[in-house]
Amino acid sequence: MKIAGVDEAGRGPIAGPVYAAAVILNPEKAIPDLADSKKLNKNKIALLAEEIKKHSLSWSVSSASVEEIEKFNILNASLLAMKRAVISLDIKPSELIIDGNFILDMDIEMRAIIKADDKFKEVMAASILAKYHRDNYMINLDKKFPEYSFKNHKGYPTKQHLEAIELKGICVHHRKTFKPILKYL
Predict the structure, then answer these.
(1) How far apart are CA 108 and CA 93, in angstroms?
(2) Most CB within 10 Å of its CB: which of 42, 57, 83, 148?
(3) What is the pTM of this model?
(4) Cα 150 from Cα 136, distance rounded (Å)
(5) In whole angstroms, what is the distance from residue 17 CA to residue 68 CA?
(6) Contact at 8 Å (CB) between 77 and 68?
(7) CA angle, 183 then 77 then 25, to 5°
(8) What is the pLDDT of residue 28?
């Protein structure tokens, strides 16, 4: 039985895409220290991301763009990114365990479980890959838009980020349907 864990990263930020990952772990290659990405520091996430990629039977990371977030809303864009991640796996899973309370529109057995990233190693691994790839996207975006300091807050509505928007206005990577951004339109 090939179980894929599925999780997303980046629903709360006001800038950048939402990312999702799907991971089928190798039962013969245990990856120590797996945990929910929210409980790990960036160095541990980077280390574990490499281990997950190296030792998993299959893994995939996908995203939904800011335009898709605005068109479909953040929940549906997250589900779209998750579906893309599952479809992109090299191995078709027999079951999905999804973090949260929504299932995907797919013909695969699946369970949506709140806090699955605390309970299932596959979902912990997906959580780590989604966060790792989204954070790196935002760090690279910072090189093109240094005035927003995306590398520091990864697009979340921190004081620093909101002050930068107040000063510079918004850019194409800001989610225009999100409350903190609406007042600048």
Answers:
(1) 8
(2) 148
(3) 0.96
(4) 10
(5) 9
(6) yes
(7) 135
(8) 96
- What's the Cα-to-Cα distance from 17 to each of 1, 24, 69, 132, rounded to whole Å? 32, 24, 8, 13
Enumerate long-range contacts of 160-166, CB under 8 Å, 24 or more apart.
161/14, 161/15
CATH 3.40.1280.10 fits 3-141, yes or no: no
Give the model confidence (pLDDT) of 60-94 as tens digits.
999 999 999 999 999 999 999 999 999 999 999 99
Between the two ends of the chain, the Cα-to-Cα distance in Å is 50
> Which phi and psi (to 5°) does residue 158 adopt?
-75, 170
Q: Where are the domains of the chain?
A: 3-141
Question: What is the chain's Cα-based Rg?
Answer: 17
pLDDT interval class at 10 (50, 70, 90) = very high
Question: In the numeric block, which tokens belong to residue 94?
Answer: 């027999």
Burial class (CB in 10 A: 0-12, 13-18, 19+), 169: exposed
Answer yes or no: are the C-beta atoms of 18 and 10 closer than 8 Å. Answer: yes
Q: Which among 42, 13, 41 is positioned nearest to 148, based on CA atoms?
A: 13
